[in-house]
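To close the chapter, one final illustration. This time we ask the reader to focus less on the individual chains and more on the assembly as a whole: which components sit near each other, and how the overall shape emerges from the parts.
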Amino acid sequence: GAGVSQSPSNKVTEKGKDVELRCDPISGHTALYWYRQSLGQGLEFLIYFQGNSAPDKSGLPSDRFSAERTGGSVSTLTIQRTQQEDSAVYLCASSLTVGLQPQHFGDGTRLSIL
Amino acid sequence: AQKITQTQPGMFVQEKEAVTLDCTYDTSDQSYGLFWYKQPSSGEMIFLIYQGSYDEQNATEGRYSLNFQKARKSANLVISASQLGDSAMYFCAMREGRGGSQGNLIFGKGTKLSVKP
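The assembled structure is written out below.
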């Protein structure tokens, strides 16, 4: 597609369940980023991929969070045993490479934990 | 210490007037990039403009310009001829260019701009 595509756009789930969030970057973009935007917290970096590898996972808030990217394209962010504090908008972005280039964002997944 | 500081939580501007949104940054890198994004109430993050630390000219993109003052570490966004559709949150962000960095953007807390008819 023309832009970064994220699915689902909204997800409501019960505390303790696992969720998977998907991101399809702009075609040809080798770098992919995940951010979280919570009310009052601003935008928080989670993880980035260069190709299929994630050089640094230290932005992930806990070991319940994991992400993978296969084929240098689609990425999945998984949150296990969700907690209410995980409620946020999860934004994915991509750029041509990792560098001083604009990152283009998807519309986000709004995650609500009941 | 905050890397990106946006001191104006909210701003009002009259339609058709110009407005400046402030952003200061903190880095010890020589190579870095500064970005501005717009986030309307619908939630998408829209890239507006980019300034590289070595760029000698201020960046411009249509009605958007970036007033880059390197010595003062400021990168203010100027929107000329404001339109009602400019009402949104505006985020200033920085990407540091040092080797081994995470590759991520560091965002400020944003400025909510409201354009009055």
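The longest strand of chain B covers residues 88-96. Chain B is about 0% helix and 50% strand. With these observations in hand, you are ready for the problems at the end of the chapter.
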